[in-house]
Amino acid sequence: MVVNFGSLAPKKNLPFRFFNFWALNPNFSTIVSQAWQMEVHGSRMFRLVQKLRALKQPLKQMNKKEFSAISRRVAAAREDLSLCQRNLDSNPSNDVLRLREKELSQKFTELLLAEEMFFKQKSQVHWLKERDQNTTFFMKNFNSKANRRKVRSITDLNGNQIQGQDLKNELLNHFQSILGQCNFSYPGMDSFSEVITKTVPLNLLPSLTAIPTDQEIQDCIISFHPYKSPSLDRYNSCFFKHSWPIVGQDVTATIRDFFISGKILTEINSSYIALVPKKPNPTSANDFKPISCCSLPVMYLGLPLSSSLIKARDCQTLIEKITTRIGSWTSSFLSYAGRVVLVKSVLCSIQSFWFQAFILPKKVLEQINQLLRSFFWSGVDLKHKGTKVAWQAVCRPKCNGELGFPDLELSNRVARWTLEYLVKSKSFWALKTSCLSSGFWRKLLGLRTMARGLLRHRVGTGKDTSLWLDYWLPNGPIVQQLGLIGLEILQLDNNILVDKLISNNQWANPTTIQLHQFF
User: Fold this and answer.
1) What tens digit of pLDDT does each residue of 171-189 get?
2) Considering the entire predicted model, what is its pTM?
């Protein structure tokens, strides 16, 4: 959320931001190399920060020289190319004109791609690719987002409208009264140990504290999406990918130095605080919340923390996310084919993330289907009228001549079937994959080795505790202590539960008495 403090504030230079199309310029690597030769004294982290800071001005100068007013440059290049082609039509044997036409065509293509990449990066639309002539859509999307993010005025508690410079003070005073002032002193690890009772097993500490290798650092940075939001220094992953042969050694050395020393500069260990509207068209300071004040106690990674079956009221955040995302699009510039892409690649991916963690209530599925259906047929207006084909038909596979939208109820039934059929009364630790297992199911079961040491099973009545496989004894699962031969020696079924071997709070047979004494 960008807060606009009005026209009274003096105009300042725009902050630096790395644009991905800069990397296409033939002089980009030379500019980075020259800046990187600057001699800086200090720690590795300090040297990296200073070099990145010094590089900003040459990059801005390159942008001003080569790409400023990009849309006007594109229009001028188009006109020059069109004029040259008309002259070439009149004199097709002119070698000078043919060479000139080739040069102008290349220049126009490069500028056109740069313009498209510019508006795509500003609009933060990641589901469309460049070179598909989507510049108009990116530009409209960017302008729409920019208008929504501006806070031009708010109303105080007395009903007075505040704008201009007073808007800044009103927002600061409001959130300072809620959050208070920073007055924190480090209490030491002893205070934390009183609160944190569960710790990571010692056998996992070496892998968690290991210094990453240069290749691991490079793979991590390269894996980032090139259009994701930049860090505080305004360099995104695209910069590091294209300039890695030049800057890579300093970057990896800095990261490794941090893992060794545990120290980090203030310039890096900082963050922005964004204002997030609690509702559409906010009118007062109370209608916003700082992003750092989101509901952390009940939400984690965008999902509600719940140990029981999730309820419809717990899914309100999911409904709001889908509704907000739809409202952020300028779908009047999209055809039905464009909306198909949006529904499949964006909206359905939001609820798919929830599907991996929860079985959603039927009421929530109906609400999501209603949103998807309304957006597809009527756009961001979300009108309930205008449906031309039944939604069940639209969700049929593309091989049947339909659009192949995901069937949410079917996906939900698959999740229930997984629990009731694949898991059923079996222990999660004893489940095996087959040739019919999905990739997600294989990955989930593959994480059991790592998760086993982090979990402890509360026995209770013993009706949900596997005697053989669950971690309910101090020494770990029995299968780890006795091995597979233990099943044959004790003559016990591998799916047997603890409650089957206990009667009147005592072990029920001699075999289990010996087992109890062993542990």
Assistant:
1) 888 877 776 666 656 666 6
2) 0.51
